[in-house]
Amino acid sequence: MPSETTITTPIPTSVARDAVLAALHDHDRYIRTTCPALISYAHLSSNPATTPDSLPAEVYEVTDKRPIGQTTFRLTLTDLPGEGDRRADRGQGAHGQHGHQVALPRARGAPQNTLEERVAIDSNMLMNKMIKGNVEKSHPEQHQKFMM
Fold first, then answer.
1. Which of 11, 28, 63, 103 sits most deeply, having the most CB atoms within 10 A of its CB?
2. Within 10 A of 116 (CB to CB), how many other CB atoms are there?
3. Predicted confidence (pLDDT) per residue in 6-62, tens digit
4. Which residues form a coiled coil (predicted)?
5. Cβ–Cβ < 8 Å for 120, 131
């Protein structure tokens, strides 16, 4: 059963929400920011309607440095219409990680806009716990770097 977590990061008032929305659709920036141990990446294909909701997707092959060697995985990025949502699917061998990011407008009474990321991890129970902990630890920092 997938493990899920949500990371919410306030968008600084000095950063326009539209700039965050545009950055979510900048694939180079997204890959370089969310893969801090990036060795290399290559664009593999543009798929006009391969997602479950028939939206175009871009597929990349990403190689990351790991504590023991390196790993290569497929990253599928789908720019969702409307509010600038982004969906990222990482297939990494025995587990998959699916993220959905959206820059939310300021809620009534809230001091600022937020960047919200929902992540589902699909692996065995032990790996789910480890990956979820890593996501919850590293993604707030990634959000900050992404918004700079």
1. 103
2. 15
3. 988 888 888 888 888 888 888 898 888 888 789 999 998 877 655 556 677 888 888
4. none
5. no
